[in-house]
């Protein structure tokens, strides 16, 4: 039975995806159904100027687009993108505290959340993508503008994320190295080698097929693996919130805010 509440692990290590290069983590119930619906309503009610229409999908960028890999610091993230997601990201330590550590050491360990080493100590940028069925995105890397931690919250529907490894000649195998199923209300974190060395993409399908414990890397961490026992996932409209820390932030944006941050 689906959970309507969120459920955080004692540490990210408890949610690490075994079999992948460290470190990748998956939390099935990162937000509740009520929180999911509230965020989806905010996404849908955003002003039309916030949406960028691509060929087969559309997206929003908060608080603004990057200019030459730089965030122009004029506006904070809106409250509905801050809470509850960012506070929860910062509340879960990467590693469990050691029982034989001193009090000070335990406290320090508990403070080491996934953004502890990023320039701003927290995400400062959110990309919202909407994926209707039969919509995907080509394999790609996120680039050098961001600290190498990507936190993606999925809303609305499940789909498979494919991970690819480029060959020495730069060519890409048609088949992914791994597949990760992202359920509604889940959080997927990728960092380290998975960020720098691998590409990720989504096939433009109406249904994900050939799904099993052998083919889905995070199968043991899924909320409801029984839903996919027939090996298929019929896609609906999936919305993703991708949280990252932009390395370069220019204070120029606060002076030129009306020009560069004119979208409400």
From TrEMBL:
The record, for SUPFAM superfamilies, names:
Clavaminate synthase-like
Keyword Iron listed: yes
Task: Provide any one GO MF term from the record.
Answer: dioxygenase activity
Alphabetically sorted, this entry's keywords are:
Dioxygenase, Iron, Metal-binding, Nucleus, Oxidoreductase
User: What are the boundaries of the region Disordered?
Assistant: 97-122
Cellular component GO terms, alphabetical: nucleus
InterPro entries recorded for this chain?
Answer: AlkB-like, AlkB-like_sf, ALKBH6, Oxoglu/Fe-dep_dioxygenase_dom
Fetch the Gene3D superfamilies from UniProt: Alpha-ketoglutarate-dependent dioxygenase AlkB-like
Question: What protein name does the entry list?
Answer: AlkB protein
Which species does this protein come from? Neurospora crassa (strain ATCC 24698 / 74-OR23-1A / CBS 708.71 / DSM 1257 / FGSC 987)
